[in-house]
Structure formats: structure tokens, C-alpha cells
Amino acid sequence: MAGSDRGAMEARGAGAHSALGWLMQPLIAYVTDTGHDARPILQLPGLRGRNLDDPDGRIPDETARDAWHLAATITADAALGLHLAQSLPRGSLDLVEYAFRSSPTLGVGLLRLARYGRLLNDRLAAQLLRTPHEVRLLLGDGSGPPAYPQRAEFSMAIVLRLAREATRSELAPTEVCFAHVAPPDTLEHRQFFRGPVRFNAGADAIAFALSEVNRPLLTADDALAAIIRRRLDKALAAQDRAGEPTATARVRRKLLDSFGQGGATSSRIASELGVSGRSLSRRLRAEGTSFRAVVEQARGEIATTLLRDPGVSVAEVAFFLGYSEPAAFHRAFKRWTSRTPAEYRRHAPRV
Known about the structure:
By secondary structure, this protein is of the alpha+beta class. It has helices spanning 5-12, 24-33, 39-42, 61-75, 80-87, 94-101, 106-116, 149-167, 187-193, 222-243, 247-258, 266-273, 277-286, 291-307, 314-320, 326-337, 341-346; strands at residues 18-20, 58-60, 126-130, 134-139, 175-177, 197-198, 205-209.
């Protein structure tokens, strides 16, 4: 998955989101293998005539969302996401999957999924939040609506499947949350996850006990991990150049990747972008903004996403975003939204 600039540009257009076209293959195969006609999916704009064998090819995220909707409609399978996650051939998530499998521990693996998962779908970027009792992997960065229900269920199920395979255990999450309303029958969900499953929760997330974070992965391979990460970092850089051409967008993306992992200074971000601090300041100023303003905007987007998940406290959101104390976060959040975090949480949109 090297990720070509041209492929990303073709899929995204100006400011649009994209997904890895390769991932449509197992979805289409599942529809066909269950005895249904997958041709309507292949005729979707963005898929018609496209070579889905290209490991670098990208498609518009809207097309991927429509494909999931069509597959669920054609199969009438209320647990399509779970079934696809369980039947997915090993290696279908390409290098992102092996970045997880080659990690030394579950915690590191989840962190790598959060970092590199946006190569699979850049709108469903994930955040890994560590609390005093658990780690939570949340889908979304506040830039769009929640994932299509079956797609969200697939995402949470594949994370758990990978974790169970890599630890060779019947690992159970402490909680799984979905933004969408519950399907008529949730028995399969409860049987697969083997932990509390909440629907209409405002967020798509899966949580593991903090005691599991240091659980070693039996598939760990430091040498392989180093090779994979070099390729994935190169792919991320190419994706950012192609899809986020402005300095503001590229800084925002770096900030989203850095939250929860220590403070992101302007000099550090500039270094990661391959420019000097002064040059970055000039570019941002030319676009009518500043590093501080971009930080505030990114914090606001992530804050609203995290606050939709009732399993995360306001204090934990503040810490994740780099605030030294909750009071400072309260003031900033009210400046962004004219509401306190508690008020926003009470009225947070539900799907």
C-alpha cells in the first residue's frame, strides 16, 4: 500500500474523502457468496470500470458508503458487518493489518491501527484514548457524520478479531458502543463481542481493560514492523500531499494524529512537514490563519467527537487534548460552542 498521489487525487477531488478501493472486494465477494447479485454495487459511480485489484487505488468515501448500504439492502443481513469481519481472509487489510499483527503489545497495536487506519478510509480516522481504567478506540475525527451502521460494526468487529488472533485468546472488550440505533435482534452482537454492547450511544468505540494493554501479541515481529511502518509512513505522507494540499489542512492532520501522545509544538509539526517553523508560519498566515488557531479548531473537532461517547469523562477529554486542568478545557469549549461540555453532552446529536 504505497498510496499514489494521483490515485488519491482521482478519488478525492477537492476536499473530498476517500477509501481504499481494495476493501470493496471482500464486501462484493460476501454478497456473491451468499447467493446474491452484486452487480448493482459494481455499477456505482466511482466503482464502475475501476480496477479493484490495485492495492493503491482509492475511491470516493461516498461510493464506499453507498456500497455498504447496497450490500446490506441486497442481502437483508442485519449483521452484515459482523459476518464480513469474521469471514474476511487474512491479509485483506493489507499493510495496516500487519502493522497491528507485528506490534509487541495490544496497546501498541491499537495505537498503530489508530495512526494508519486512515489509509483504509481517511474519514473514519480513529483516536486512541487512555483512561485510568481502559483504552478506548473511537472512530471519527469530528469532520463528518458517523459511519454507516454496518461499516461501523465491521470496524469494531475486525479490531476485536485481530486482537483475539494476535493474542490467541478469547479477549473480551469492556464495552462496545455504536452511534446507530440497535437492529431488531442483537443476539449475534452480544455473542461475538462477549461484552456490553450499547447502541444509540453517540459514538462508535471499543474499549479494553487497562490491564490488557501490555498483553503481548504472539505475532510480534520487530524487524517486520519497522519495514511496514516505513512504508505506511511514506503512504501517509503521500496521502496528505494529495488530499490535503493546504498548509492548514496538513497541520490539522498532524495535530489529529498527535493528540493523546504529548504536546504538538509548531516546531515539531513543521519538522514533520519538512519545513522550517518560520516557513510554516508564513504559509499559515497567507491562508489567513495561525498555528494556534488551527490547534484550537482541531481540539474543538475532537472534543465534540469524544464528548458524544458517555464512557469518556470530561476530565479525560481535557487530558487527551493536552489541557493541564479541566477548567481550562471548560473555558475553551464554551468559547468554541457557546456551551459547557456537560451541556453539549446532554444535547449531543444522536443518529
